[in-house]
Every structure is written in C-alpha cells, then in structure tokens.
Design brief:
This protein is of the alpha+beta class and about 270 residues long. The protein has helices at about 15-30, 50-55, 65-75, 155-165, 185-205, 255-260, and strands at about 1-10, 35-40, 80, 85-90, 90-100, 105-110, 135-140, 145, 170-175, 175-180, 205-210, 215, 220-225, 230, 235-240, 245-250. It is globular, with a radius of gyration of 17 Å.
Length: about 270
C-alpha cells in the first residue's frame, strides 16, 4: 500500500507565503499517516493571477516556492508534486511542475505541453508550450507520471507515460469555468470533469490523482474543485467536492502491477 495526500486549495491571489502556509497546515493534519506522496494544485501558490505569472515568475529551480516545499518534504518525510509554478528560462515562461523526493531534492520537472487557449483561455499568450520529454519519476514507492490540467484532453500524452512505466499519474489542475454559467451548466461541467479523470485512469490502468483549485478565483471565474483519486478499474476512491481541504487515501499498487502483467495496454497500439 502507498499513502497519497491530495490537497485542494482556494488560494489567496498572488500571496505565495499564505498559500504555502495553507499547504503545510493540511500536511500537518495528516502527519501521522504514511505520507508517500503529496499532490498540490496547478497555480496553488498564486491562484490564476496573470500579473504574478508575468512579473514574479520562479527561476529554473522553482524559486521560493520549491525552496519552501523542499523544507516541507524534509520535515514530513514525503515526496511532493509541487502543483505548478510559472518558471522563467531565458526569454520564455513555462507552466512547470517540480517533483521532490523525501530529502527535498528536485528529482524531475515537467513543463505543460497543452496550453489552455480555447473557450476564452489565453495561457498561450504568456507561456510557451513545454519542451521537455514526458516525465515519469522513479520514486521510492512507485513510478509517478506527471501531467498538468488541460493535458487531460490529450490521451496520447498518457499513453507515453504508461509506456515509460507510470503506475500513478498526477494532474495538478486549475479547471476553471465562468461564474455566469447556469446551475445546470455547472453541474454538466463537473460531470464532464469527472468523466475525463475516470477515463484517463481506466484506459491506462493507473491510479489517476488530480489536485484541483476550488472556489471563486475572480468575479468572473471559479474553479470547480472535485479533486479525485481514481483507481485503475475506473473506480473513484476519493472525491473532495467543492470545499478547500485535503483527503488521504491508501492505494493498492499491487493492483496496478498485476494489471500491467495481464492487460499490457502500454504496448498495444
């Protein structure tokens, strides 16, 4: 068994210190558990705040956000997928997820490939599509693949991750909708979101872990929460709803490993 802590936040816009304190508060609540992996949302340290993205990005080592989370990893003896930050590399900005081991060392980073540039999204106007290979990190308990938010719409990325041996795939997210939607449209959006998560888990025979932002992000936008852990059979083992918080789940990696032997979808085109 492996212990996953999935954290769902409604971040304070542009306040990295407060948001990092919130992360530590939730991890502290589960410090008595077997913390093999902590997963944080996309943009958890700033919220969806373009001014922060452009004017105060992190460096190629994740800057102050990853430095603080490195201390957290050491303190709680856990691996962390650090949500995502805006990373500056030369003249380009990337939406980047850093992965830390229990010693706080960076053991991988993934730059988001599929930028949200549809339905009014403009992520491509200030960030560059990722230029690094798809990332699977050999951790001390499992092989973990990394994606970010809108990547979930592109199944071939996940095929590449399971070909690299991923047993768990994480998806830090900020799945955003307009507050002007009707109640029925909001319900439909949540249904679609859940279906995407279930599909990515079941078709790839992995545990799929999505940590999402939640709550109103501006007068016009909200993130729908519903952070999830879905098992390889497509069964939702954890669903957080729309409140900020964290949920801990023990997962059975033997299930993934047995399925990889009996149903080798990674090697079937």
């Amino acid at each position: 068994m492996a212990g996953i802590l999935n954290i769902q936040l409604n971040p304070v816009l542009s306040d990295k210190e407060k948001n990092l304190l919130s992360v530590n508060k939730y991890i502290e609540q589960f410090a008595d558990k077997n913390l093999d992996l902590v997963v944080l949302p996309e943009f958890f340290s700033t919220g969806v705040h373009q001014e922060s993205f452009v004017n105060s990005p992190e460096d190629t080592n994740g800057g102050i956000v990853v430095e603080a989370l490195s201390e957290t990893a050491r303190k709680f003896n856990t691996n962390i997928v650090c949500g995502s930050v805006i990373e500056r590399d030369g003249d380009n900005l990337y939406n980047t997820s850093f992965v830390l081991d229990r010693s706080g060392k960076i053991v991988g980073k993934y730059r988001k490939i599929h930028l949200f540039r549809f339905f009014g999204g403009n992520e491509n106007s200030y960030t560059t599509p990722g230029n690094l290979p798809p990332l699977v990190v050999e951790m001390d308990f499992a092989r973990v693949g990394v994606s970010i938010c809108f990547d979930i719409k592109y199944p071939l990325l996940y095929k590449s991750l399971i070909k690299k041996g991923a047993e768990i795939i994480v998806s830090p997210s900020a799945w955003i909708k307009l507050t002007s939607l009707s109640d029925k449209q909001k319900q439909d959006a949540a249904t679609c979101w859940k279906a995407l998560n279930i599909a990515r888990a079941a078709e790839n025979l992995v545990y799929f872990v999505t940590s999402n932002l939640t709550g109103n992000l501006s007068p016009a936008l909200y993130s729908l929460g519903n952070s999830m852990i879905v098992n390889p059979m497509g069964v939702v083992e954890s669903l957080q709803g729309q409140n900020e918080g964290a949920d801990y789940k023990d997962i059975d990696l033997k299930l993934v490993r047995e399925l990889k032997k009996t149903v080798p979808v990674a090697f079937i085109d």
